[in-house]
Amino acid sequence: MRRLNKKSLALKTVKALDAFPKIPEGYQETTSSGGGVSILCFLLIIVLVITEFHYYSATDMHYEYEVDSDFTSKVKITIDITVATRCQAIGADILDLTNQGVTQFGRLQEEATYFDLSKNQRAYWEMIQSINTYIKEEYHLVHKLLWKTGYVAFPNKLPPREDKPKGEPDACRFHGSLLVHKLAGNFHITAGKSVQGLGGHAHLSLFGNEDKLNFSHRIENFSFGEGTPGIMNPLDGDEKWTNSTRQMYQYFIKVVPTMVDTKSAHLDTHQYSVTERVGSAIYWSEV
To answer: What is the pTM of this model?
Structure first.
């Protein structure tokens, strides 16, 4: 009985213990402003908890490098380039170290078009250029965000022209895909059409009028591999203007296969770096 009384006394003592004494109700006064402050504090706590949870569960990008040992598979190249010369006077071709021509890899479509953009097209083009410039300056941090979130709603096509220019089309658009070996190669757009003969590869021009050649160009898409969300290629939005008929533009590209594996995206794509050279051709210009 004594033990039971001692336990009851100890329990009462613990219940009576109050480290934070309550203020008597007579001293308290409720106001609307005080209630508003309490609600704001409660909402702030909820926001902080949600933010910390997202930070804890966010994907952290880690990079690993390994040698690509797959030599037998082929790589898809997607090309969409407009050159300020009529299709009858120029041609596109690709060669690799095996000296195989474009007929082995596929053919690009040639479409007569106008080189000058309409108002809506120019606005889209300037947006693509500004985004690409931002990505280059920020060391591809935007790519990290797009890969993590699996973002797919990025606009990737030039809008249709809303007006009809006067006169005949003055430019040629080369677009399509080529399936090539994993070898060093050369893709070029130059004067004349491609001819594959017994002695090698050449371009034959039936017009011979160099004054009508102009290799000002606009690159809407130049990519390797399948189309992938969250990828802005270095040459997308590139645009070059010249008044010379002998201007030559060269791009030297190094391609790296890239695999991205996150909670939101599983990508098997390619990235590339590019350097440029501008010079004068002896007989014709090429892109």
So the answer is: 0.69
